[in-house]
Amino acid sequence: MHARNALVSALLVLLVGCGGEAPLGLEVRINPSLAEETDDLQAEVATPPANDDGNVTYSYAWFRDGALVADYVDAVLPASATAPEEVWRVVVIPTMRGVAGEVGVATVVIRATDNSVDADGDGHPRPPEGLDCDDEDPDVHPGADEVCDGKDNNCDELIDEGYDVDGDGVTTCAGDCDDDDAGVSPDVAEECDGADNNCDGLVDEGFVDADGDGVPGCLDCDDDDASNFPGNAEICDLVDNNCDDRIDELFADDDGDTYVCNDCNESAATVYPGAPPVCDEHLDNDCDGATDPNEADVDGDGDSPCDGDCAPADPAQNVNDGDGDGVTTCSAPPDCDDGDASNFPGNTEACDGVDNDCDGVPESTADLDGDGVTTCLGDCDDANAAIAPGLAESCDGLDNDCNGTVDDGFADADGDGSASCVDCDDTEAAALPGGVEVCDAIDNDCNSVVDEGFDTDGDGVTTCGPDGQPGTADDDCNDSSGAVYPGASDQCDGIIDHDCDGTPDPLQADDDGDGLSECAGDCDDTDGAINPNDADGDGYDSCTGGDCDDTDAAISPAGTELCNAVDDDCDGDLDNGFDTDDDGYLDGDNTDCAAAWPSGSLDCDDADPDVFPGAADVCDGVPDNDCDNSPDPLEYDDDGDGTSDCDGDCDDTDPTIGPSAFDDPTNGIDDDCDGTIDEPPPPRWAADLTGSPILALRSWDYSAGDLGTSYTLSSPTGANLEAAVVADFDGDGNEDLVAQSDGSNPQVFYFQGDASGSFTYASSPGFQLAGIGAQIWTAGDIDNDGTPDIIGWDYADGEGWVWLTGSSGGVPSWTRMPSSTFGIRPFELQYWDPSAFNYQDHESVHLPLVDVDLDGNLDIVECANSSSSPSECAVHSGDGTGNFAVTYTFQLGRLINGFAIADFDGDGALDMLGGFDDDGDAGQSWIWTGGLANWNGGGTAAFDLNPNSGTNASNAVGYGWPYPFDADQDGDPDLIVKIIEPFNSNNRMLYFVENVGGTWSWWTLAQSWSQHSGTASMVQDAIAVSP
Q: End-to-end CA distance of the chain, in Å?
């Protein structure tokens, strides 16, 4: 399962593209699902991708027992490829418009045709041929109906599913008497709740029932009375007989007075036992059988207290009006003589010796003002002692002598009948005390108030105005409104003329002739186009609704903004929403914008705020920032060398100068535009290990296209050196070297490199090789910490070791994985031939390491080294911690005795180039392009370094070691290749193979090992090119 998941993950990593929409949701199946060894297998799409646009194609990969079988890539797998008990899996990869998506996977087990694998004859074989989980019971098999019997009837690894509805862990067939209630089952304790909790057929057993009514006290509302218990019948007895917290609920209380069984009147809510007496049509409110006191006529005068009898025990006092004067003996105050209608409280006293006003005094004999004259003796005002018959007349506006004339004998200049001594204006006959006030600006009634009653609205202006002349301009023209008078301010209250000038007020006037004034809501009475009317019927007006064009229903705050130079949504912003990048220029790709606006307002890329007419030329990958339909100068490749100013071309007029150019160290020009003139290229080293204490290093001479003169390093202990790896271990930017001695107790030496390409012995790293039979092989950052680590493996069995690089006091240090020789190794080479330390097999591992599964971690790739094709290969995927696992295997239809991995054709995908021995033709190579998923079959011929001619040709098995690096600095990986033919012979040649855009050319290198003695050659004269 883990291998399959890893393999499918690898397929996904390699096949899922980018740049378009990936097809998702594929489901597949294999037919027949119960396949026998004689059946062809058909991979079918059960459910196509949910986003299939009709352009989905499918690729197929078949796996036998978890291993890829590369020969079958179609939907049909022939029966001839299968055998009984094999597990076959198909992985279907959907691709839509060049983008791969989620894969579909289906699996089938091949059955033998022998029917004995289905012992119970239910049509479902037992594993591994089928999935029958009980092949001795015909009622048990996949797809059977699950029944409640303690068995897994349908082989879904669940027993009696669906028969424990309440999820209490007990099924109905196990005794659950209520499978809808998780609190009821044979496993629970009985509770006092009226239910059979433990399914024993008894309810609430074990709980006390004091009154013996069959209901325990925990549920009985009255466990002392057997007539009261839940479920009993309710009777009308003022008791809760059925324990429902209600009393006599079955007996209607029609009048709602809460009395039922002893209510003497069920139609009246005021009648019930103990009710208070009230005055109503019911004589017995309290149901005691007697008339209520307030309803009884005790004194027999025909009236009860409810009728208003104020003295129920005195028949002389009642509510009857015997004399019809409107006052009874029960009135307050009472009638003192209910037999005479001329005598009652409040009547006027007459001088007749009778108490006419019922005040207890028969007549007016009193002299109230003390002037010695009573009313009956002629005092015309018995409340004023200055008025009485016989008194002298004074000029005081009174009839002092009660002769019927006021102020007789005193002057009245205006002849109005009011003497001057009391007349407020004795020159004006219209003004006198008691006169009738009229609106004439005169105090007619001499009360010191002029024209009172003629300013009804209290606004300080009368109807005749300050001049007292009605009909003049100073009159109040509307004395019912305090807001209307001469000089009043204009208001919106429905009154047209507030200031009484005879013309409509400004706020009330329709100045612009649109039919509405400011008071009617016209927010601009100078413009007839602006008013509260919704002229275009779009639901918005131009005053309060915000309609910026009330003649066009398509224009309003609810309008949809179009690119038409019109503010369709009235937000004050023309064509908002059509400048996506907010650079102030509208989308030039929108046909509406292009039709409505001049070209200088249109953006040629409305997704990029740095692109608009007149924009500055910048290096941003956009060829036309200023929208002038021509490439920007900085983005244009003027000299045709493939790079522009923006790409780092420091002289775009010279095609020999650019970031990818070779920097000639002799011409005084910064050819590669790195800011340094004639800098020496970084060294690339080849190590000639001759079985001596001397290590011969040759750096690559970029100008000569060959290995340069030898640079030697000596073993600090005199031990013979056997292996070396090169990398910048201390992080100073210069390549360092770690070398290993030979023998059974090998030593390791660390040489620190400097900027000149020289090396100085620095230390012994301290990691141990003694006793483990290991050899260091290459360096690479396998734990992704930015520092290269070291990898090696054992001679005898190919089991791997990893030394993780750290630092101690600024000097590199190494930690071995595993730390113990008994620990689990980080990897084990599958195709290593342990026989006689067969160094031919060393070429089966690719160096340096490369990330072939594209997960960001370096991987190990190896191929089986043999004398005939095809070759089996495997990928050990790194996990970024130093450990590796085989996740992918593939088969190449060629003999692979050496191979290199790089993007040789420049398409962005890794390619594999290998061979160098075509079953007896050392030097032939083939290439497989397009990434790991496409490395299969015979490949395409690349080049033949030794085409069976000359003294070095041989048909014996040979091998070659290709090592990729960009020797000519043109961006295309080149190769150093060493050919040895036959194996382990002295016939050795070193080649340089130049790659120019996928076209190969080669030549032998001057520094070759053609005459080298093979007997002392270790590590095939290791080519230790730095990673």
A: 35
